Amino acid sequence: MKFVVERELTEPVSLTLPSGDLNPAAVGWARRPLVDTSGIGSTGSWGRNKRWEYWNVSTPSHVLALTVSLIDYAAVHEVWIFDRTAQRAWGRAPTLIPPRGAILPPSLDQGPVRAVAKDFLVEIDHSDGIVRLHAEIPEASFDVEVVRPDRHDCLAVVVPWSRRRFQYTVKDVALPAVGVLRIEGAEYPIPAGQSWAVLDHGRGRWPYDIAWNWGAGSGLVDGVSFGLQVGGRWTEGTGSTENGILIDGVLTKISEELTWDYDLAEWRKPWRITGGGLDATFTPDYDRHSETNLGIIAARTDQCFGIWSGSFAGFDFDGVYGWAEDVHNRW
Prior knowledge:
single chain, mainly beta, 0% helix, 14-stranded antiparallel β-sheet, 27 strands
C-alpha cells in the first residue's frame, strides 16, 4: 500500500480498522493529535505493537529526558540527565521482560503515564493545558511543567509501510517549560522563557529491522518562538514525512524527503539537512552513544546534541539548541 500525496487531516479518525489493519482514512498529517490509537495492542500482530511517550527538556544548563514504552514483550524505560557544561550524565534504563509496572493511555492526553521499576519512577499527568513531568532515579529527580500555548501547532503524521505495518507519531517542539532539577542534593532551576520541551508520542506496528534519523530544535529567534522537526530514512517510500518548521506557533509542513549529510565517524563535523526550502546546519558538541544487544533485541543510537542554524523560506535562525540522531533498531 503506497500513498503518494500527503493530505492534511482536520477531523478525528481511528488509526485502525476493526480488523486491526491500517485505516486508509487515517493516512496523512495534522496540526492537532486527531488520531485515535486505541486499536494498537488490542488486535493481532503481537510483538510488532510499539507504544511510547518520550519527553526531552532543554535548559540553559541541562538536558532532561524520559521514556516510557511498551513493545508487547518488554517494557523499556529511561530517565537521562545531562550537564551541558561538565558533559556529565546520570541515568537509569530498565528493561522489564515480561512488561510490568507501566501504564500508557490508549491515545495521547487520554490518561496518566506511569512507569515503576527498581530505583526508577516516571509520572506524566495532563490537566488544564499543562503537562507535568516527574522523574526519580537514585542520584537525581526533576519536576517540570510544560505549557501548551493557545496557538501552537504540533506535527502529527501517520506513516504507512503496509496495511499491517504503520506508525502514528506526534512530534511537538518548542513547548515552554519551567520547573526544578535536583542532582546529588543540589537544585537547578528550569527557568521559564529559556527552557523548552519536545514530545515524541508513538503508537504503531513496526517492522522488525528499522533505521531512522531524527532532529529537533527549540528556542527563540529574535524574540519569536521557533521549532525545527526533521526526520529521515524510516519514512522513505511511504509518501509521508515527519518534516516541518514551527514559527510563532504556526507549522509549515515539508512534504518531501530531506537530504542528510553527516559522518558518524567524525560526528563533530557539522551535519547538513536540506530540502523543501530548508537549509540547516547542525553543529554537535556531544554524542550520546549507546548500544544494546540482547540477541533478538538490539539497538544502536548516536544522539548528538548541539546548535542548529540555517534558513527556511526566507526565515534565518541561529543558536537554536537541540539534537540530531542516527538510530538502528532490531526490535
